[in-house]
Q: What sequence folds into this?
């Protein structure tokens, strides 16, 4: 189920649960133990799903088309936050000081990422993800699986041999066909829609305090 349909489904389930509770409270009806148990399970499941979806959108941070959630693995976090994470941000749960993750399925203009277009992710000079370990950008298809490609490259990063521009900036070319003269900075894309994951390990303070913003993915077709 796509994220858009998930939102509608959560709203629908939440509305049904609220109406059902109103019906139970305001209208007379025959009660049985079995009926009460079934009703409790269904209402509990529905409200839990809708609440997790709503809370996920409150806690998620979206900048330049990239979505992340801060503080997921911190001790003392509630089960509601964990459920929200599982619903909206299916990434690893770690303390932010160990790793931070972002995902994007749309470019900076809000258009769905697709192999029918060519994209560029431009990191300005001194604008690569600040860290004390490493970072990587990973490609996944619409089902979040690796994308077969002729050079068997599934991610790029500070250990993949990216070649900087003369001014120190770095361009990552995200497209189906190899960019002539920039093959070292090519992240192969599938024919259909795709998802990007940015992972930063042992992130610096600029990431942890939200100062650093991941640049947008730009359509250069």
A:
């Amino acid at each position: 189920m796509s994220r858009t349909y998930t939102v509608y489904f959560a709203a629908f389930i939440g509305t049904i649960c609220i109406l059902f509770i109103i019906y139970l409270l305001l209208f007379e009806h025959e009660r049985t133990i079995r009926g009460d148990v079934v009703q409790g399970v269904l209402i509990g499941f529905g409200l839990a799903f809708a609440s997790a979806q709503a809370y996920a959108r409150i806690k998620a941070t979206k900048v330049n088309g990239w979505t992340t959630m801060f503080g997921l693995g911190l001790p003392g976090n509630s089960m509601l936050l964990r459920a929200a994470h599982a619903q909206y941000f299916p990434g690893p749960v770690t303390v932010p000081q160990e790793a931070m993750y972002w995902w994007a399925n749309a470019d900076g203009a809000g258009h769905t990422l697709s192999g029918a277009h060519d994209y560029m992710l431009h990191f300005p000079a001194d604008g690569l993800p600040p860290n004390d370990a490493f970072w990587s950008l990973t490609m996944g298809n619409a089902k979040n699986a690796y994308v077969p490609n002729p050079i068997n490259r599934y991610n790029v990063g500070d250990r993949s041999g990216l070649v900087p521009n003369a001014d120190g900036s770095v361009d990552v070319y995200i497209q189906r066909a190899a960019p002539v003269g920039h093959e070292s900075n090519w992240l192969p894309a599938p024919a259909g829609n795709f998802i990007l994951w940015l992972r930063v390990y042992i992130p610096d303070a600029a990431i942890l305090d939200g100062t650093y913003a991941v640049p947008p993915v730009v359509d250069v077709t």
